[in-house]
């Protein structure tokens, strides 16, 4: 089955064309600056194309992608009729979706109702679904939710200690995100452990957005992100865990509205806020190496926050069989992995400095042979999860 995978953002969209049965990727790319001037970056085989294309809306962007896939130098299929299904990344499914579903009017209506929980993401996700329905009528569309994997969390883990009515009236609780990545990486770790039962895995998805999850026997029992992605770890521009009192005090001292304060929390904090240099960890690592103390502080804070959650989740899991690192930072920043794992000998987890500093695009174990808990670096593949879920939903429903 040939699946068109779409991840629609507010002013950009990522895409991939894949056969999930054999994991063959025919093409992938990115549309940027939608509504401004439009840039399409298209990769196929060993080749790359970059084109400036007028994209006033997402519709023109998706039309441009489909045209590039079927015509000219970037052609990889003869017709859009070769596409058998469309898989969509959907950010927030609330409590309504515990798995991937065929897109129907009822599903879209439910996602619209959940927009207050993800005002930046759900509208763009819905737009992508509706445009694909228009441009490829009759083709099944499947929504794959970031939050679905974490719907197995027990109530004592996902509830906030607010008045209970805030949950019953407004569904205020922890939902978690990066679910497709946490699912993929934890499942890969179970294969690497060659242990299917009583597996205790901690996944550290570290990138511009970061989260940690505790996965018991393949099911999420806790995760660091909450009602929204701002909770949890310190990230590229997000603050992560900040006490409500600190937020209120900052607002009163700076004369900020709640929207202005949330803008600070989401876009001006985290790595960029502490380092004062960049939200890109590579630049901050270079700054620390050159003696910049704020960059050094940012690195120490990042590692400490991750380690804090690793320790908490090891306790929640009653031990740990594997700690996994994934995402742009998790896969590439050896120093962060080293700092997170330093001192975890008491848990039976010991990192091998030589293995840790070797670069590879393959999944690997960087723990010492004597370590009772393994340390895995596993490249994530969220697009495969979306494509495979789409394949399973479509074949199961007979579409």
What is the rounded Rg? 21 Å
Principal-axes shape call: globular
SS elements, strand count: 14
Helix and strand string, N-terminal first? EEEEEHEEHHEHHHEEEHHHHHEHHHEEH
Span of the ends, CA to CA: 12 Å
* Sheet having the most strands: 8 strands, mixed
Structural class: alpha/beta
Strand content: 15-25%
CATH topology of the largest domain: Nucleotidyltransferase, domain 5
* CATH architecture type of the largest domain: 2-Layer Sandwich
Summed over residues and divided by their number, the pLDDT gives a mean of: 96
CATH superfamily of the largest domain: ATPase, nucleotide binding domain
CATH C-level class of the largest domain = Alpha Beta
Lateral arrangement of strands in the main beta sheet:
5-4-3-2-1-6-8-7
User: How many H/I helices?
Assistant: 15
- Counting structural domains, the number is 2
Low-confidence stretches: none
Q: What is the helix fraction of residues, given as a range? A: 25-40%
Structural key phrases:
8-stranded mixed sheet, globular, 14 strands, 6-stranded mixed sheet, metal-binding, Nucleotidyltransferase, domain 5
How would you explain this protein's 3D organization?
The chain is globular, with a radius of gyration of 21 Å. A hairpin with a 6-residue loop joins strand 3 (24-32) and strand 4. The protein has 399 residues and is α/β, with parallel strands linked by helices. The chain has 15 helices and 14 strands. Strands 5-4-3-2-1-6-8-7 form an 8-stranded mixed beta sheet. The chain has a 6-stranded mixed beta sheet with strand order 11-10-9-12-14-13, sandwiched between helices. The protein starts with a strand and ends with a helix. The protein folds into 2 domains: 3-149, Nucleotidyltransferase, domain 5; 194-382, ATPase, nucleotide binding domain (Nucleotidyltransferase, domain 5, 2-Layer Sandwich).
């Amino acid at each position: 089955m040939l699946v068109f995978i779409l991840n629609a953002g507010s002013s950009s969209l990522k895409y991939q064309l894949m056969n999930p049965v054999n994991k063959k990727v025919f093409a992938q790319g990115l549309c940027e600056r939608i509504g401004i001037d439009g840039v399409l970056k298209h990769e196929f085989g060993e080749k790359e194309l970059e084109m400036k294309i007028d994209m006033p809306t997402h519709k023109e962007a998706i039309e441009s992608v489909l045209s590039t896939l079927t015509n000219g130098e970037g052609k990889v299929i003869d017709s859009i009729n070769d596409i058998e299904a469309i898989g969509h990344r959907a950010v927030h499914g609330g409590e309504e979706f515990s798995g991937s579903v065929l897109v129907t009017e009822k599903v879209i209506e439910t996602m619209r109702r959940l927009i207050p929980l993800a005002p930046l993401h759900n509208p763009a996700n819905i737009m992508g679904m509706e445009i694909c329905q228009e441009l490829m009528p009759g083709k099944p569309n499947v929504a794959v939710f970031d939050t679905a994997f974490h719907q197995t969390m027990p109530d004592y883990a996902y509830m906030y200690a607010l008045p209970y009515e805030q949950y019953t009236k407004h569904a205020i609780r922890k939902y978690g995100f990066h679910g497709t990545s946490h699912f993929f990486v934890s499942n890969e770790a179970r294969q690497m452990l060659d242990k299917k039962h009583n597996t205790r895995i901690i996944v550290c998805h570290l990138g511009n957005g970061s989260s940690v999850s505790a996965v018991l026997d393949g099911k999420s029992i806790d995760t660091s992100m909450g009602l929204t992605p701002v909770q949890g770890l310190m990230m590229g521009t997000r603050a992560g865990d900040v006490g409500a009192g600190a937020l209120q005090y900052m607002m009163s001292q700076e004369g900020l509205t709640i929207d202005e304060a949330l803008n600070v929390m989401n876009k001006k904090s985290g790595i960029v806020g502490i380092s004062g240099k960049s939200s890109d960890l590579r630049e901050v690592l270079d700054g620390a190496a050159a003696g910049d103390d704020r960059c050094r502080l940012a690195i120490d804070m990042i590692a400490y926050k991750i380690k804090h959650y690793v320790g908490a989740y090891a306790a929640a899991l009653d031990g740990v069989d594997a700690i996994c690192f994934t995402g742009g930072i998790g896969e590439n920043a050896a120093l962060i992995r080293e700092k997170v794992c330093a001192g975890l000998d008491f848990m039976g987890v010991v990192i091998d400095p030589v293995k840790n500093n070797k670069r590879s695009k393959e999944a690997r174990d960087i723990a010492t042979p004597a370590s009772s808990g393994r340390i895995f670096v596993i490249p994530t593949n969220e697009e495969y999860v979306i494509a495979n879920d789409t394949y399973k939903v479509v074949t199961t429903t007979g579409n």
